[in-house]
Amino acid sequence: MKRAVRLVLVFALAGAHALAVHAATDGYKLQPGDLLQVVVWKETDLQSEVLIRPDGGISFALAGDMQAAGLTTDELRAELETRVRKLVPGGVVTVSVKAPNGNRVFVIGKVNRPGDFPLLRPIDVMQAISMAGGVTPFASTNSIRVLHRDGVHLNSVRFRYNDVTKGRHLEQNILLQSGDTVIVP
Q1: CA within 13 Å, CB half, 151
Q2: What is the DSSP letter of 56?
Q3: Model confidence pLDDT, tens digit, residues 34-44
Q4: Residues 121, 124, 127, 129: is their CA dihedral positive or negative?
Q5: Residue (of 163, 166, 159, 153) closest to 182 by Cα position
Q6: Beta strand spans in 16-83 (E)
Q7: Domain ranges for the chain
Q8: CB neighbours of 51 closer than 8 A, spacing ≥ 6?
Q9: Maximal CA-CA distance, the chain
């Protein structure tokens, strides 16, 4: 019986590791609120800071309006370059994230520093709680919830802090996504 439990734990950890590696290799996904620096090489009039609008779009000279949210900087650069080259042959576009204001997770409730935190790399629930200064002595640590919006549906996932700190049920220590909220009652 213990061997079966260990095997399940090993497979759960391997799956979590694979998700983390996949998220890390996919690159940073742009979100509404991110501030970008867009430069067309040797075209001083085509250099500007671009804010991704709440609808996920941007506007850039010679490229017009286009969707940016959900793309990586490389994907956005390629699309901008294709559009700009129609009017500036050989134009080389560079896109960089100046301020990643869009990718954030929230930790609220009985933690030492509740608030929103930048999601600059993949982080899990325990890491988010740590970023919030840890739980207070009055927290109900086995009743923590993670709220995640999947399109229009809001999902709630239970998180038992005490189990994870003891090395049990580690599969519940999920990777958070932009906009997720960790509630510590």
Answers
A1: 1
A2: S
A3: 999 999 998 88
A4: positive
A5: 159
A6: 35-40, 47-51, 57-60, 64-67
A7: 2-27+103-184, 35-99
A8: 33, 34, 35, 36, 58
A9: 69
pTM above 0.70, yes or no: no
User: Would strands 104-109 and 181-184 be described as parallel, antiparallel, or unpaired?
Assistant: parallel
Q: Domain 2-27+103-184 belongs to what topology?
A: Outer membrane lipoprotein wza fold like (3.10.560)
**Is the CATH number 3.40.50.410 carried by domain 35-99?**
no
CB 102 within 8 A of CB 33: yes
Q: What is the pLDDT of residues 58-92, one digit of tens each?
A: 999 888 899 999 999 999 999 999 999 998 898 89
d(CA 163, CA 141): 9
